[in-house]
Amino acid sequence: MDFSKSRNLFTRAKKSLAGGVSSNSRIKELPSPPFFNKAIGSKIYDVDQNEYIDYVLGRGPLIFGHSPKFILTEVKKHIKSGQIYGTTTKLEIDLSEKIKSIFPDMELVRYATTGTEVVELALRLSRAFTYKSKIIMFEGQYHGWTDNTLIPESNIQKNSMLNSEGIPSQSAKNIITVPWNNLNLLEKIIQENHSEIASIITSPAPECEINKNFLTNVRNLCDKWKIILIFDEVITGFRLSLGGAQKLCNIKPDLSTFAKALGGGFPISMIAGKYNIMSLLENNKVYHGGTLNSNIMSLSAANAVISHLINNHQNIYTHLYEIGNELISGIKLCAEKHNIPVIINGNGPMFKLSFLHDLGRSKINKPSIYKQFYKLIIQKGIRVEYGDHSGSIWFISTQHNLNDIKITLKAIDSVFQNISKN
To answer: Which of 26, 155, 237, 321 has a beta carbon 3.0–4.6 Å from 21's, enabling a disulfide?
Structure first.
């Protein structure tokens, strides 16, 4: 594949755009951050006219693939009358009523633009409601890029390591990070600090896996010690099921955050929860604002997404799970054929592929198997995330089909054969 135009554009971009990108997660993509100019269905095309089957899908939002007509039609219909009114609209009420029909226990909702924003709001609400300041997070989970949340690498608060320069050391004082699925340590920390802990925030499916037993214990601990439980469903919401991951594990959080799939490619996020907490937003008891919150484009897109999911959820999720699991089964067979041990967490609509050889190895060692895999699979016209040292999340859309899977598995088989020889 030729990537010369993307490379040239990246060189040009770095002269006026910090890092040449607008999100740090894009910097490391190889052979350079790709520059795309067209995307339809399950395919995406770069400026060098390379075609890819896309398993990145904008990092999760595109549950219906690229450029879904039913969303674009709805947006075009409403955008003609205006874009930002700076006040509440009927579209907002319509969407909220649809959300409440899916989640009857979510008594009030509020909209913003990004997942990071609604996570920040959830933390603020939990602190205001409980009159406490500390937040428990789980090691390695990502809840946004702000000073409040970018502190994932520690066992207990005394060993917190900030994940970016420029974050005041004081930010870590109100964050306690705990290893996932370590119930004994979690109980100990809560017993010692419960008078200061406002909330526990977690993805209900970290690493794409739902641990119902551990989540049930977390829910029980929150009830016992009067701590707010926040589910961060920015990635999993409306992707794993109509009711998100919380529906699949049948656990009800006090607050939930959503984004990504909610807008189907348009920027919108949502916090939803119990009336006694969410009502703090009334009369400015807890402040929240945003110029672009509930803009007409995003509201019309979200209404289209949620209506389509409500009316067709059985067929949609059946397809996502069947196609995704077909791909997972094929990857496992290819790995076994070439004696390359892999670990696949999750199923259907999203899963994480990792290589056993890479787990626990230092990043300063020779390149991981996953990075070798990434460099080679891109050359085969299969777009996956650059990911971490050992693997990445793959997203499936309703536009992926069995032919896409066939082509993908043929490429993976070739790449695994190459890796096994080296």
So the answer is: 26
Strand 269-273 to 108-112 pairing: antiparallel
Q: Strand 36-40 and strand 197-202: pairing?
A: unpaired
β partners of residue 258: 233, 270
Q: Are 111 and 89 in contact (CB under 8 A)?
A: no
DSSP state of 155: S
pLDDT confidence of 364, banded at 50, 70, 90? low
DSSP secondary structure code for residue 252 in this structure: -
Two tokens at 177? 């990070």
Q: Binning pLDDT at 50, 70 and 90, where does residue 160 land?
A: very low
Q: In what order do the strands lie in the sheet with 342-347?
A: 342-347, 350-355, 391-395
DSSP 180-237: TT-HHHHHHHHHHHTTTEEEEEE-SSGGG---HHHHHHHHHHHHHHT-EEEEEETTTT
For residue 256, the cross-strand partners are 231, 272
Per-residue tokens: 394: 């793959």
The owner of tokens 């939002």 is 61
Name residues whose C-beta falls within 8 Å of residue 76's C-beta, 6 or more positions apart in sequence. none
Output the CA torsion 175→181→183→188 (10° steps). Answer: -30
238's enclosing H/E stretch is: none
Report the DSSP beta bridge partners of residue 232. 257
Q: Which of 23, 269, 230 is nearest to 138 (CA)?
A: 230
Name the token pair of 398: 């309703």
How much of the chain exceeds pLDDT 90, in percent? 82
CA distances from 287 to 46, 125, 229, 294 (A): 42, 9, 20, 16
Which pair of structure tokens corresponds to residue 176? 């306690």
Residues of the chain with pLDDT > 70: what percent?
A: 95
The domains located in the chain, with CATH, are: 4-66+313-421 (3.90.1150.10), 84-294 (3.40.640.10)
